[in-house]
Structures are given as structure tokens and as C-alpha cells.
Design a protein that fits this description.
By secondary structure, this protein is of the alpha/beta class. It contains 6 helices and 9 strands, in the order E-E-H-E-H-E-H-H-E-E-H-E-H-E-E.
Length: 189
């Protein structure tokens, strides 16, 4: 299975997606909704936690992100992301030197913001049912405000309902919805 980049430099390029049911790519409609609002990401580094297919990170790169880090532990997902990075490096050699794509094998809860964090967007899309993982990763980012923005994907039926965040003192700046899935945007700068 493949999915396509929706806009920017790599518009229309196909991405490999890992087989099986271990990953769940962000729906095309939800990706389109968020990236219609974020056409230019040239001021940001982008971190794709629980990257899965990496589609959101590659979309961010296509729209100008200064760098993209894919954080993933699942073997098949890492293989697909690595193939996609290799294809992007072949097709966009100069651009990928200037704006690197990097795959890191790490658990999301072990990732920590780096020196560039004030200009970073973190996209966090774990398996919806991993509610404890949401709390382990998201709550420190919401409390410390060490990144520019946090984009959080969940599902109101399988994951944490969108009201969970405001009920716990963290009102999203914006929410994009598609079906039962949503991406909540938290801005800190």
C-alpha cells in the first residue's frame, strides 16, 4: 500500500506504508485539513513521534520544515520510513542535505526536546488505545512548554476524548476533526 504527499515540494510523491495492522496512517482527510492550515512550515523543525508510516512528517518536510525526525520502534514501520527517506534523498538530493530527514529508534516516552525545541513542532500519534502513553509523553510537554507547538492525534472512541485536555487544564488552540479522529493543536510560542 502507498499513500501520497498532498502538497508542497513533494506533492503527489508516493510513500511506502508498512504492511500489517501495527500502524495506522493518519487519514488523508485529516492530513489535508491540518496542512491546509499549515501551508508553510519553513520556520520549524518537525518531530514525528510514533511515526508509523511517517506520512505527517514527510508532508511537513514537503511544506518546508527545516528538518524532520521520525521516532519509531516498530521494525516494519522503520523499514518503510527508511525506504521513503532514501527515495526523497534520491529525488531531492540538495533539499535533503539542507533540510535533513532522520530516523531514530526510540520509544516516544524516552524522546526529549533538543536545543532547537523552541522552533519545533511535535506530532504525537500513538496507538489510540495506549492511553497511558498519551499521559507519559503529552503531559510533560504541556506542562514544560518546551516546544513551539504540539500536534496530538487521538480518537474520541478508542483513545482520549478531545474534552480530556480542557478538563485537565490544557485547552487546545485548535482542533481538526475527521470522523471520530482528531488532531488537537497546542501552541506555546
Amino acid at each position: 500500500m502507498t499513500i501520497k504527499i498532498l502538497g508542497g515540494l513533494a506533492n503527489g510523491r508516493s510513500l511506502f506504508v508498512p504492511g500489517g495492522d501495527q500502524t495506522r496512517p493518519t487519514s488523508v482527510r485529516l492530513r489535508r485539513r491540518i496542512f491546509d492550515s499549515y501551508q508553510d512550515l519553513s520556520d520549524f523543525d518537525f518531530i514525528d513521534l510514533c511515526a508509523g508510516s511517517g506520512a505527517v512528517g514527510f508532508e511537513a518536510w514537503s511544506r518546508g520544515a527545516k528538518s524532520v525526525q521520525f521516532i519509531e520502534t516498530h521494525r516494519l514501520a522503520r523499514q518503510a520510513i527508511q525506504k521513503n527517506i532514501a527515495n526523497f534523498c534520491d529525488y531531492f538530493p540538495e533539499e535533503t542535505k539542507e533540510r535533513p530527514l532522520e530516523l531514530l529508534r526510540s520509544k516516544a516516552q524516552q524522546w526529549r526536546p533538543g536545543a532547537q525545541s523552541e522552533q519545533s513542532i511535535v506530532f504525537f500519534d500513538p496507538p489510540y488505545q495506549e492511553k497511558a502513553l498519551y499521559k507519559q509523553v503529552v503531559m510533560p510537554l504541556l506542562q514544560d512548554r518546551t516546544v513551539a507547538e504540539l500536534w496530538l492525534e487521538s480518537d474520541r472512541q478508542k483513545g482520549l476524548p478531545k474534552e480530556y485536555w480542557s478538563e485537565n487544564g490544557h485547552e487546545p488552540d485548535k482542533i481538526f476533526e475527521q470522523g471520530t479522529s482528531y488532531i488537537a493543536i497546542f501552541r506555546f510560542s
